[in-house]
Amino acid sequence: MSHNKNNKQEEAPTMIQKQNKVKERSRETEANSHKERIRIRLIPIWLRIIIIIVLIALCLVGGAAFGYSVLGEGSVKDIFSKETWTHIIDLVNKE
């Protein structure tokens, strides 16, 4: 029995050493991966903002055209006239 205990005691430090080596390797790979992680954006942030603004404007125009011409049975070109919008604002603000 004492022989088994000695073997276990001898194995324990080697297991700890192996675990420490694995931890060191993982730390090294993490450090290397942080160095290699330089990311170049395909679309710059300023261009993304402009694209979002343009898409919002297109959605507003498309929604107004659909709502006024299909649902309201008007003409699509009327959504670009000032009289149409003053009429809509008057209808909304009417008390």
Automatic annotation (TrEMBL):
InterPro entries: RNApol_su_b/EpuA (IPR024596). Keywords: Membrane, Transmembrane, Transmembrane helix. Residues 21-34 have a biased composition (Basic and acidic residues). The keyword Transmembrane applies. It comes from the Bacteria. Pfam families: EpuA (PF11772). The chain crosses the membrane at residues 45-68. Residues 1-34 are annotated as: Disordered. The keyword Membrane applies. This is DNA-directed RNA polymerase subunit beta. It comes from Cytobacillus purgationiresistens.
